[in-house]
Amino acid sequence: MEITWAGHSCFTARGKETTLVFDPCPPDLGCPTRWGTPQVVLISHPHRGHSCVEGMPQGTRVFSGPGEYEVGGAFITGLPCFHDDQHGETRGKNTAFVVEMEGLTLCHVGDLGHPPSAQTLKDMGKVDILFVPVGDVTTLSVAEARSLVRALQPRYVMP
User: Fold this and answer.
1) Are strands 156-158 and 129-131 parallel, antiparallel or unpaired?
2) Model-level pTM greater than 0.85?
3) Phi then psi for 101, rounded to 5 degrees?
4) N or C: fewer beta carbons within 10 Å in the chain?
5) Where are the alpha helices (DSSP H) in 7-154?
C-alpha cells in the first residue's frame, strides 16, 4: 500500500485493487489534485477543506457519513462523532472512517473535536495506521491526540 499526503487533512491510500482519498481539499487550501484515479472518496464532514470533489473522475464513489461500505478490496466503516466537544452544536457532525484493506486497518478521524467514547474506540478496533489532527483550536488538542494514540496503540501515526 502507498499512502500519500496531499495537504491539509487529505491523504490518498493506494492498494492493489482500490485507491481511496480521505478528506480532499481544494488547491487554494494547499491540496494539489494529485490523487490519481480513486474509486472512493471519504469525506469526514462537509466543510470546504475536507469535501472538495470537483475534478474527481466520473464514477468515483463518495461516502460522507456513518455506515458500512465495500468497494473492491476495501471494507469501510464510518463511525459517527462530532467536530466539537458539544455534540456537534458548534461545528457539526464528523465521521471517522475505519478502512480494512491489504491486510491493514487505517483510521482517519477527520476533524474529530472531542475524545472518542469508549464505544467508538472499541468500534475503531485494532488500528495499524492512524490519521489524526493535532493541536488545532477546532480539533483535538495535543494532549487529546496523544491520549487517542495511547488508547488505540496504532503501529503508525500520521499527524
Assistant:
1) parallel
2) yes
3) -160, 150
4) C
5) 118-124, 142-152
